[in-house]
Amino acid sequence: MKKFLIYGISCCFLLGIELDEFSKLRDWVNLQEKPVKIDWLQNGDYPYSRAQKIFNFDILKISHMIQDLDLYPNIFKRVMEIDRLEKDVVKIMLKMPFPFARRDYIVKYKIKKTLNQWIFSFKAIEHPNGLVEPGIVRLNNASGIWVLKKLSENKTHVTYSWNGELLGNFPDFGLKKAWITQGTEVLNWLGEALSNKN
């Protein structure tokens, strides 16, 4: 049953919310404390989810891995393919467990750096080269944000937040379970990739 509720990272994004606005959101409801902390809230028409974990890795090492979207199929196991459409625009295709259709989305991303913080945000856009293949569900509202905060030289707090909207034939009753699975998988896969790179 758990596999049928996995949404992978297919809609791991905040819909058009910038960091300043997102940081003001309150009343998060906790869904899971460990091994990855997962919370969610409803804001307007969309549910938002976030996953948080402390990694024993340097902030630069983590940020380099997150911003290298071309390597996502080797890091995140549900990413089938990355098609770079522009320098800061990519099309991402994801596999879903049976009986759910595959998803894809086109996002434009940006990076913001400060002394002890690194932010990677992205949201869906329309693109002339972004044709929808037959049988694929296009996630037109996909958007999200990674926030890395340096705690020490080899310790980083990672927050990954996303628009939890699910489209296609995914049942609404499975949303919370899917968010737990999704957030846990994404951060665990990131941790595995970081460990394997040592």
Which residues sit in consecutive blocks of at least 5 with pLDDT less than 50? 1-16
Whole-angstrom Rg: 16 Å
Distance between the terminal alpha carbons, to the nearest Å?
34 Å
Q: Could you give the count of β-strands?
A: 10
CATH class: Alpha Beta
Mean pLDDT: 84
Report the biggest beta sheet as strand number plus sense, adding barrel if it closes.
10 strands, mixed
User: Which structural category fits the helices and strands?
Assistant: alpha+beta
What share of residues is helical? 10-25%
SSE arrangement, N to C: HEEEHHEEEEEEEH
**What's the number of domains?**
1
Identify the overall geometry: globular
Taken as a percent bin, the fraction of beta residues is 35-45%
CATH superfamily descriptor: START domain
Give me the CATH fold name. Alpha-D-Glucose-1,6-Bisphosphate, Chain A, domain 4
CATH architecture: 2-Layer Sandwich
Q: How would you characterize the overall build of this protein?
A:
The chain is an alpha+beta fold. It has one domain (2-161, 168-197): START domain (Alpha-D-Glucose-1,6-Bisphosphate, Chain A, domain 4, 2-Layer Sandwich). It is 20% helix and 38% strand. The protein has helices spanning 19-22, 59-67, 72-75, 175-197, and strands at residues 29-32, 37-43, 46-55, 79-86, 89-94, 103-113, 117-124, 137-138, 143-152, 155-163. Strands 1, 2, 3, 4, 5, 6, 7, 8, 9 and 10 form a ten-stranded mixed beta sheet that branches. Strand 5 (89-94) and strand 6 form a beta hairpin. The model is unreliable at 1-16 (pLDDT under 50).
